[in-house]
Amino acid sequence: MKKKILVIMLGMVVGFNYSCQKSLLDPVSQTQVADQNGQPFSTSARIQSQVLALYANLRSGQLQGGRFQVYNDVKADNWINLSNNQITASNTWSASVNTTSTEVLNLWSQGYYTINLCNLFIDGMAKYGTPVVGSALAANYIAEAKFIRAICYYDLLQLYARPYADGNGAKPGLPLRLTGLSSYSDQSLAKSSVADVYAQIIKDLNDSETGLPLTNGSALNNTIRAHRNSAIAFKTRVYLTMGKYAEVITEANKIVSTAAPFTATTGVANALQSNVLNVFRAPYTTTESIFSVPFVVSTEQVGTQNALGYYYYANGTNPGNAEFYLNPAGVIADANWKATDARRTNFIYLSTIAANNTKYFLAKWNAPGPYLDYAPVIRYAEVLLNLAEARARTAGVDAQALALLNAVRQRSDATTTFTSASVGNAAGLIAAIMQERNIEFLGEGLRNIDFMRTLGTIPAKSNVQAIDPSNPQYIWPLSNDELLYNTLIGGSNN
User: Fold this and answer.
1) For residues 364 and 360, what is the distance between their CA atoms, to the nearest angstrom?
2) Model confidence over 21-41: pLDDT tens digits?
3) Which residues form the SusD-like N-terminal domain (predicted)?
4) Dihedrals φ, ψ of 40, to 5°?
5) 291, 233 contact by CB (below 8 A)
6) Handedness of CA 477, 480, 484, 486 (dihedral sign)
7) Could you tell me the residue ranges of all domains in the chain?
């Protein structure tokens, strides 16, 4: 009898001891949290991890890690497709996408996924997080989330909605989701107008300008995390896309000095590099790189079929994939783009591969797999040309517009100077600025945006016909996934 009681008591002790030690076997993670009852916002480390995760999702290869830039370049006129691979943008290049095309589904999904993460974070900070990190740091973090959300909505508008110039923003835009979704339920939401989505983008960027720090303390963090000048710079792009030129000038004047050499005199000391090659080579953290998405180590690689170098770069020893080569009738045919221009000598090269030895490729991103070249989102050179264009469109042949245009051209080609006589009139100056953008940002995802914001016809290329603004392929169709599950979204945006 005593033996039996002893066994029972031992069992109780073992059970009690196990329950006491279970927390040691399965400790509560300080950064990975399953419990959503405020736990993700219970420590400063967890909150910071969420902020970094927002950047990581923007960095996805389906978004700013490569494909957004690729789609907006190859949709235009400077590229010829080599592979006919529907997974790697051949449908976008040939203007044959539909609601179930890979690019249409994936960019929509990644864009809204990242937006939802931003919304959940902003909501959580308001409810739980601010007392944990303090009001100043909370404002900083929320500003970063709003900056990322603004980029995502801007990116989605460029592909799935009619340009702002078509009806002054009155056309159907996107479902404007501003509250985090954390459970499965009917989340149907009608589209807001293009103007309403742009208004939210500007609001987010204005809030970001107020909440972001003047500097992040190091060249690396000033490149890969948002600071005040990042929000201002991106506003110049947004306002230019909307055709609001006075607002472009107002924003650009905050970070561009009135005369050459043009620099930002407050916040991060953004400025052009003296050599454009430096922007695209390690460590990728120049003062010109206002905001880029990083790939620092192999564990951060964007994935083979997403990287910019995978699409555009090839050489004799490591041919890579080189899905696209430069259209002989595109920008490289511009007689005013001199052979001695540093952007030609550094980035444009004739293939040495026998099968392609008559084709020119782009070497801005020249690291082979695992493709760790940073992907630029916005550079100081763009801010200068945004300001130049806005001034030309509002003031004609303007002295500062000419000086800004010359600053970008002459850092790569000191032998060319644009003057009032050489451009002739406002139209000539605008044409020179647009062509400078075509040269400077080749492969960086601005070419199609430049056509669409001015309601221009996308020129023909190879066997692909020209696409005018009335063509349904001028913009992408909406994602079939959204059409299936969102009962309020309605039909096409065309």
Assistant:
1) 13
2) 434 444 545 544 455 678 999
3) 66-240
4) -60, -15
5) yes
6) negative
7) 39-455
